Amino acid sequence: MFRIDNIDIIMKSLKSIYEKEETLGKLAFKDEYENYGISEIHCLDFIGRIQDPNVTRISQSMNMTRGAISKLCKKLLKNNFINKYKKPENDKEIYFKLTELGEELYRYHEIKHKQWEERNNKFFKNITKENQEIVASFLMKFNNYLDEIIESEGEI
């Protein structure tokens, strides 16, 4: 008799949830912002939230390579979502800030993020606190395990 392993179910479910969240994210940004990918929108979000955003800080925040972040920032610069600037005390380092258009998309993303939280909270309010704690504990342990592997393998 064929037995589906619980680990297989967990891994497939995590993958499926991630893919569905991606799909819902794309649906949330259809129409006016459909030409921009999730990575671009999240890059804008980090530029709006972190202090002195530069390629290194953004790449660390997004767990992406500096090369990938540079590409994203070039596209955001080209589309007038961000500007670059230098500090007087450091003429080498390039920093980014949101333009008025970038600020508009940043605020739109915040609104969509709150709607996403409200949507998911409707589901989670029906799950017992005990089950929430079990799942949260499992996910934190698995996440920490993956962090340890990444750290031992070296950075991207």
Please characterize this protein's 3D structure.
With 156 residues, this protein is mainly alpha-helical. 68% of the residues lie in helices and 10% in strands. The protein has a two-stranded antiparallel ribbon. The protein is globular and about 55 Å long.
Question: Short description, anyone?
Answer:
The chain is built from 6 helices and 2 strands, in the order H-H-H-H-E-E-H-H. With 156 residues, the protein is mainly α. A two-stranded antiparallel ribbon has the order 1-2.
In spatial order, strands of the major sheet run 1-2
What class, by secondary structure content?
mainly alpha
Q: Compute the gyration radius: what is it?
A: 19 Å
Bin the helical content.
Answer: 55-70%
Keywords summarizing the entry:
single chain, 156 residues, mainly alpha, two-stranded antiparallel ribbon, 2 strands, 68% helix
Q: What is this structure's SSE topology?
A:
Blueprint (H helix, E strand, L loop, with lengths): L5 H23 L9 H12 L5 H8 L3 H13 L3 E6 L2 E9 L1 H25 L4 H25 L3
Antiparallel strand pairs: 1-2
